[in-house]
Amino acid sequence: MQLTISSVFLSVLLASTVTAAPLHSRTGKNKANKSKMMMGGNAAQTAAKSAVGAAYWITNEGAGNFVVAAAIGSDGKLTLSQATSTEGQGSHGAPGDGPDALFTQGAVKASAAGGIVAAVNAGSNTISVFNIDSTNPTNLEMIGKPVGSGGEFPVSLAINKAGNMVCTVNGGAINGVACFNVDKTKGLTPIANTVRSLKLNQTTPANGPAGSVSHVIFSEDNTQLIASVKGLPPTPGMLAVWDISSSDNSLSADFKAVQPAKGGLLPFSMTVIEGKNAILATDAGLGVDIFDFSGGVTAGTAAGKSSTLGITGQGATCWSSFSSKTGNFYVTDIDTSQVTEINVDDNLKPTIVTQYAQGNGTATIDNDIAAVGSNDFMYVLAANATEVKVLSLNAPGKAQALQTLDIAGPAKAAGLTVSAANLQGMTTFIKK
Ligand SMILES: *[C@@H]1O[C@H](CO)[C@@H](O)[C@H](O)[C@H]1NC(C)=O
Ligand SMILES: *[C@@H]1O[C@H](CO)[C@@H](O)[C@H](O)[C@H]1NC(C)=O
Ligand SMILES: *[C@@H]1O[C@H](CO)[C@@H](O)[C@H](O)[C@H]1NC(C)=O
Ligand SMILES: *[C@@H]1O[C@H](CO)[C@@H](O)[C@H](O)[C@H]1NC(C)=O
C-alpha cells in the first residue's frame, strides 16, 4: 500500500518536471509570460510600499497562472499592484464553465508566521511557494521551483501555525492530501508518508461540484489534517481527518470519515470555531454544518453538538471566514451573491445575524478577513464581476460596504489575462 502510493507520488513529481518545460513557449503566445507584471501605475507602487499588508488571489488561467496582489492600506482599502507568475497552469473543473473553477476554498494561502504565500497550479499538478517582500507585501519572490502536488488537480492549501509546513488536497483522478516542509531557500520539500488517498472515483480535471474535494485545513491545535468532500446526492459528503505525527509530521495511514449531522450534504469550506475543537463548514446544499469534535473524532455521522443551519433562499453557500472583532462567521453564496453573518454560541448553536447583498450576478466566492488597526475587513472575490468587494466589520451585524475593486480594467492595461470563470482564491497577509 505504502509503496504504491509513494511510487505514484514519484511519478507525479517526475511528470510535473516534464510538463514544466513547454510552459514558457505556450504562455509566450499571449504575452502573459513575464514573471512579474506591475499594475495600476506609479500611485499603486507607492501605495504598495506603505501598505500594512496585502490580499492575494489567483488568475488560474490554463495558459499561465498568476498570483494577483493588492496592497491593503491602513484604511482597509485595496490597491491593485502586482501579479506574479506561478510558473504553472490553472484549470477548470467539469462539466460547467462558470465561476469557481476549482470548486474550492484555499487555492492560495498566505502565512504571516512564515512570511510566505503558496498557490496551487491545478492544470500542471504543482504547488508554487513565494517569499513575501518585507518592505512591499505585494512583491512576491518564488522560492525554488513549483513541486509536484502528490496527485492530480491540486485545489486547496493549508499552512500550519509556525508557517513551515504546507499541505495540499488533490481533487483529480489521483486524489488525496500531501504535505511539504518549507525551506526558505529550496522551497517545498515533500514530507515522507504524507501522500494519503481520499479514494474518490474522480477525473482530471475534477467533476463537480457534487462529489468533488472542497478544502483542506489544520485542526486548531495542529494535530490533525482535515479535508472536506462534497456528497453525491443523496449520499452526504464528509470531512476526512488524518492524525499528524508529533515526531515526524507524517499522517495516519487512513483517514476517519465524518459525515455532517442529519440534513448536511455538501460540506465545502471549513473554518475553525476557536477554543471549541469544532468546525463551521459551509454546506452548498443548505447553508452551514457544525462539526463538534470536542469528544474526539469518530468515524460516522458527526456527534455531540453537531448540527446544521439552513439559510433560507440560499443557492450555494460555499466559502467562510471568522472575524475576531465581531466574534462572528461570514459565509458567501455564489448564486445569491450575499454575505451571511452567522453567530455560533457557547453551545455551538449557529444562528443567522444578518445578510449583506453584494449585487445580483456578481457571484461572490472566496473570502478572507484581516485585522487592520482596531477594525476587521472582509475581502470577497466577486468572480463574475471580476471585482473584489471590501466590507468593514465594525461591530456584530453592522458590516458596511467600503470599496469595490475592479480587477479586469487594470489587468487588461497590464496585459494580464483574467476571466470570471477562472479567478479563484482569497487570502490576506498583515505585516507584524
Ligand atoms: C516570453 O516569451 C517570449 C516569446 O516566447 C520569449 O522570447 C521571452 O523570453 C519570454 N520571457 C520570459 C520572462 O519567459
Ligand atoms: C466511477 O465513475 C464512473 C463515472 O461516473 C462510473 O462509470 C464508474 O463505474 C465508477 N467506478 C467505480 C469503481 O465506482
Ligand atoms: C436580486 O435578486 C433577488 C432574488 O431574485 C431579487 O429579489 C432582488 O430584487 C434582486 N435585486 C436587484 C437589485 O436586482
Ligand atoms: C454572470 O454574469 C452573467 C451576465 O453578465 C449572467 O448571465 C450569469 O448568470 C452570471 N453568473 C453567475 C454565476 O452569477
TrEMBL record:
<dbReference type="InterPro" id="IPR015943">
    <property type="entry name" value="WD40/YVTN_repeat-like_dom_sf"/>
</dbReference>
<keyword id="KW-0732">Signal</keyword>
<protein>
    <recommendedName>
        <fullName>3-carboxymuconate cyclase</fullName>
    </recommendedName>
</protein>
<feature type="signal peptide">
    <location>
        <begin position="1"/>
        <end position="20"/>
    </location>
</feature>
<dbReference type="Pfam" id="PF10282">
    <property type="entry name" value="Lactonase"/>
</dbReference>
<dbReference type="InterPro" id="IPR019405">
    <property type="entry name" value="Lactonase_7-beta_prop"/>
</dbReference>
